[in-house]
Write a structure and sequence with these properties.
Elements: H1 37-49, H2 56-68, E1 73-77, H3 80-90, E2 98-102, H4 107-115, E3 119-123, H5 134-138, E4 145-151, H6 160-170, E5 173-177, E6 185-186, E7 189-190, E8 197-201, E9 214-218, H7 221-231, H8 239-242, H9 264-274, H10 277-294, E10 300-301, E11 310-311, E12 320-321, H11 330-339, H12 368-376, H13 388-405
Parallel strand pairs: 2-3, 2-4, 4-5, 5-8
Antiparallel strand pairs: 1-9, 6-7, 6-11, 8-9, 10-12
């Protein structure tokens, strides 16, 4: 791969935001999925067979994902949000309960706690890992605490030894938000299999996509059965089993459930994605290391190297801007990258920075690490759909933009 970009650019080489030409002629979409002929063929096959709702491909996807995670049970649903919501309900969490989670996460992690009728309790993240810690969790435990919902941020596993030990000692349920952590492991244990359940996302930007979709893995057969039932109206049988060639099967509605099921059209994409999961992981790891090499001399804090005890899923590459050494804001960098025709993201503004969630945060609570990260983080393209030329474009644009704004 070309490494000439490591030679510092001259200040006279203006970024697009200052009147220079954009790096790219066409816009590079952030998080674009790697979709090929296998995914297209799988969807077409489902259309030809007329199985477009929940059917045999969903069952095959559940089985394959559960085996990949070395888990006895996998239940596919419509999103990771649905997976977390159903898991909380199936575990009996509701009004009067508190669930501790991180202040540095997407809103869905907190929304599902509220939808279950429980109260979210935020804990600060660590500034280097961006993950929640056992110490931060312990400081938020009250007599009403029922569960801890951890987030493996950007694909980096939390310190699950310490968190698991704390939950066992305090009698708390442990749930893993693995939206970023499909391939991640902690000391050989697959992410999602350490707590009572692990909840995964297959959204368009994720390491394995079904367009929209999610899945719950668990070793608890009763929990898996209840999640499956709640995901489809509370009915006692899967839709595809009711209308199979074995003859019509009557069903009974056991409780008021939801319409959270995955479809065969989605599962067809996911099954094809499995065949290149390891290849895409290796490409993201290579891109991550290329970014580290190219940005080492810039006024940024690079993501912490992966813990050697773990497998990092490399879902997001999130350098933190050193604003003290720059003459601009984080939003100037976001705008500048967009003008270079490169899509970027922010993962995330801390939860308590959003107006709606401020009602759940007491005046005595503070989250200095989440606020520090939230003001400085930028996510650069990392998906398997970008090639080496696109990676070099990202590097060139980010370098010349930061060098333009670096204080003399």
């Amino acid at each position: 791969m070309n490494v000439q970009i490591l030679v510092p650019l001259q200040r006279g080489e203006l970024p697009a935001i200052a009147g220079g030409p954009p790096i790219r002629d066409r816009f590079l979409v952030f998080g674009a999925p790697a979709i090929g002929e296998a995914e297209i063929d799988g969807v077409v096959d489902s259309l030809r067979k007329r199985w477009i709702g929940t059917g045999p491909k969903v069952a095959a996807f559940e089985d394959r994902f559960a085996r990949y995670k070395a888990s006895p049970h996998g239940v596919a649903v419509g999103s990771a949000t649905a997976a977390m919501h159903l898991t909380l309900l199936a575990l009996g969490i509701g009004p009067g309960d508190e669930v501790i989670t991180t202040a540095m996460t997407f809103c869905s992690t907190v929304n599902v706690i509220i939808h279950a009728g429980a109260a979210p309790v935020l804990a600060d993240c660590e500034r280097d890992t961006l993950n929640i810690s056992a110490d931060a969790i312990e400081a938020r435990i009250t007599p009403r605490t029922r569960a801890v919902l951890v987030v493996h941020f950007a694909g980096r596993p939390c310190d699950m030894d310490a968190i698991e030990a704390l939950c066992i000692a305090r009698g708390l349920l442990l749930i893993e938000d693995c939206a970023h952590a499909i391939e991640a492991t902690w000391r050989g244990r697959p992410a999602g299999t350490i707590g009572a359940a692990g909840c995964f996302s297959f959204y368009a930007t994720k390491n394995l996509t079904t367009g929209e979709g999610g899945l719950v893995v668990t070793s608890d057969s009763e929990l898996a059965s209840r999640v499956k039932m709640l995901a489809l109206h509370g009915m006692s049988r899967d839709a595809w089993r009711r209308f199979s060639d074995d003859g019509y099967k009557h069903y009974a509605v056991m409780e008021a459930g939801f319409k959270y099921n995955m479809t065969d059209l989605q599962a067809a994409i996911g099954l094809a994605q499995f065949d290149k999961l390891d290849t895409m992981w290796a490409w993201r790891e290579k891109t991550w290391r290329r970014y580290d090499e190219a940005f080492a001399d810039l006024p940024v804090t690079l993501p912490l190297p992966p813990d050697p005890r773990t497998r990092h899923a490399y879902h997001l590459y999130t350098p933190l801007l050193d604003l003290d050494r720059l003459t601009c804001s984080r939003d100037d960098i976001l705008h500048g990258m967009t003008l270079e025709n490169i899509g970027v993201g922010v993962h995330y503004l801390p939860i308590h920075a959003h107006p709606f969630y401020q009602k759940f945060v007491g005046p005595e609570q503070n989250f200095p690490n989440a606020e520090y990260v939230g003001a400085r983080t930028v996510s650069l393209p990392l998906t398997g759909d970008i090639d080496e030329a696109a990676v070099e474009d990202v590097i060139a644009a980010f370098r010349r933009l930061l060098l333009h704004y670096t204080k003399p």
